[in-house]
Amino acid sequence: MPTLITGAGGFVGSAVVRHLLEAGHEVRALVRPGSDRRNLSDLAGLSLVEGDLTDPESLRRAVRDCDCLFHVAADYRLWIPEPDVIYRINVEGTRHLIEAALDAGIRRIVYTSSVATLGLTADRTPANEETPVTLEDMVGHYKRSKYLAEREVERLVRERSAPVVIVNPSTPVGPRDIKPTPTGRIFVDMLRGRMPAYVDTGLNIVHVDDVARGHLLAFERGEIGERYILGGDNMTLRELLQAIALAGGVPAPRIGIPHNVVIPVAWAAEYWARLTGTTPIVTLDEIRMARKYMFFSSEKARQQLGYTPRPARQAIEDAVNWFRKNLEDEK
Question: Which of 58, 73, 88 has its CA nearest to residue 8?
Answer without folding.
Answer: 73
